[in-house]
Amino acid sequence: MKKKQFGFFGIAVLVAAAMFITAGCDTGSGGGGGSGTTVTYTGTASGTTYTLTITKNTSKAAYTPQAGDSYVLTIGGQKSSGTVQSVSGGTFTLKPASGSTFTATVSGSGITGINGTIALDGGGTVPAPGTMTGGGGDDDSSDDDDSSGGGNFTGGYTPQNLNNTVWKATGYSLTFTSTTEYLLEEIGGPKHPGTYTVSGTAITLTDSSGGSPVTGTFSGNTLVTSNGYIFTYQRRR
């Protein structure tokens, strides 16, 4: 982990430094990834398919979507494009090239809700559909990178209940191998064992090879980490 400066744990150090340097600015966080990386989410409402594609700002080392990235939302044959204004957990605040912001909420690779008024390219607006049925979508960075959910996580976020569960995010798979240990696997890359502690919905992950611990918060079927990753519950082993 120490050699991979922009890995899952390495980025936490950069994020902490950025918070002091750019206080008051939403600079986002995340892991590595090549320039031009895109993530696509889809959902349907009233028979219409919505496809949201977010393209990484190439000046950033981030892998997951965050502020400053560009977006394109297709609604049937219509389109809205602009920038990602902010990211909070699985909710993106999107700013069209012209018009007011609206929000899109995702889980795994699906869009579960869009709220506000959507300004369209070329003029005009359409009302957001609200709650949606998420489905489809993929991350073009890896054919093996499936972060869509595989069921509902129930029973509370205790070490005993987390044991033997698998969670996935863009580029990573996280398996809790015991009540105190986990294994973080980079898709197509190395494996990073470590230890964890939980208190309520809060978790701290500590890489066995060193580096700054990463914290996170559980909510429903998701785990959002302090370095910008959104893990979705998959299954029990």
How are the SSEs ordered, and which strands pair?
Layout: H1 10-21, E1 38-45, E2 48-55, E3 70-75, E4 78-88, E5 91-96, E6 102-107, E7 110-115, E8 117-119, E9 125-127, E10 130-131, E11 133-134, H2 159-162, E12 165-169, E13 172-176, E14 181-186, E15 191-199, E16 202-207, E17 214-219, E18 222-225, E19 230-236
Antiparallel strand pairs: 1-2, 1-11, 2-3, 3-4, 4-5, 5-6, 6-7, 7-10, 8-9, 12-13, 12-19, 13-14, 14-15, 15-16, 16-17, 17-18, 18-19
Sheet having the most strands = 9 strands, antiparallel
The CATH topology annotation of the largest domain reads as Lipocalin
The CATH class of the largest domain turns out to be Mainly Beta
Output the number of helix runs. 2
Number of domains: 2
Radius of gyration, rounded? 18 Å
Order of helices and strands: HEEEEEEEEEEEHEEEEEEEE
Provide structural commentary.
This protein folds into 2 domains: 1-30 and 142-237, Lipocalin (Beta Barrel); 38-134. It has helices spanning 10-21, 159-162, and strands at 38-45, 48-55, 70-75, 78-88, 91-96, 102-107, 110-115, 117-119, 125-127, 130-131, 133-134, 165-169, 172-176, 181-186, 191-199, 202-207, 214-219, 222-225, 230-236. It is built from 2 helices and 19 strands. It is mainly β and 237 residues long. A hairpin with a 6-residue loop joins strand 16 and strand 17 (214-219). Strands 10-7-6-5-4-3-2-1-11 form a 9-stranded antiparallel beta sheet, with no helix packed on it. It has an 8-stranded antiparallel barrel with strand order 12-13-14-15-16-17-18-19. The protein has a two-stranded antiparallel sheet with strand order 8-9. The model is unreliable at 1-6, 11-36 and 136-149 (pLDDT under 50). The relative contact order is 0.17. The longest helix has 12 residues, at 10-21.
